[in-house]
Design brief:
Elements: H1 2-25, H2 27-46, H3 50-80, H4 86-114
Helix pairs in contact: 1-2, 2-3, 3-4
Length: about 120
């Protein structure tokens, strides 16, 4: 039982290390952090209903997930080659597009909730 608990704890530690590294090194994730803090602050000021908090939490999580997956893809592609490669460029563009789609939806929903 103890061995299993230790493995779970190590898994959480690796996950937090990955998020911390991404926050230190990825400008876009720092922007998402600022946006997240702004949304939380606005939510507290306006005393949001629980269902609105749920909507914001889902949207925020989706944006963070998309950005973290995008970062993962970029790191892996850069590990494969630093040379210009059309397939890698396309993959990075598509991943960035996923972030754009989720962030746009999150902004739209935030405007619906706050305004």
């Amino acid at each position: 039982m103890f061995h299993w608990s230790l493995k779970v704890a190590q898994g959480f530690c690796h996950a937090f290390n990955g998020i911390a590294w991404a926050l230190r090194t990825q400008r876009n994730l720092q922007i998402h952090l600022a946006a997240t803090l702004l949304v939380i602050t606005l939510g507290l000021i306006t005393n949001l209903a629980a269902w609105k908090w749920c909507c914001l939490a889902i949207c925020t999580s989706l944006v963070w997930m998309a950005e973290l997956f995008n970062t993962t893809l970029e790191v892996m592609c850069d590990r494969i080659t630093k040379e210009k490669d059309e397939h890698i460029r396309r993959a990075k563009d598509v991943a960035a597009g996923a972030v754009l789609v989720t962030a746009t939806l999150a902004i739209f929903i935030a405007f619906m909730i706050f305004f």
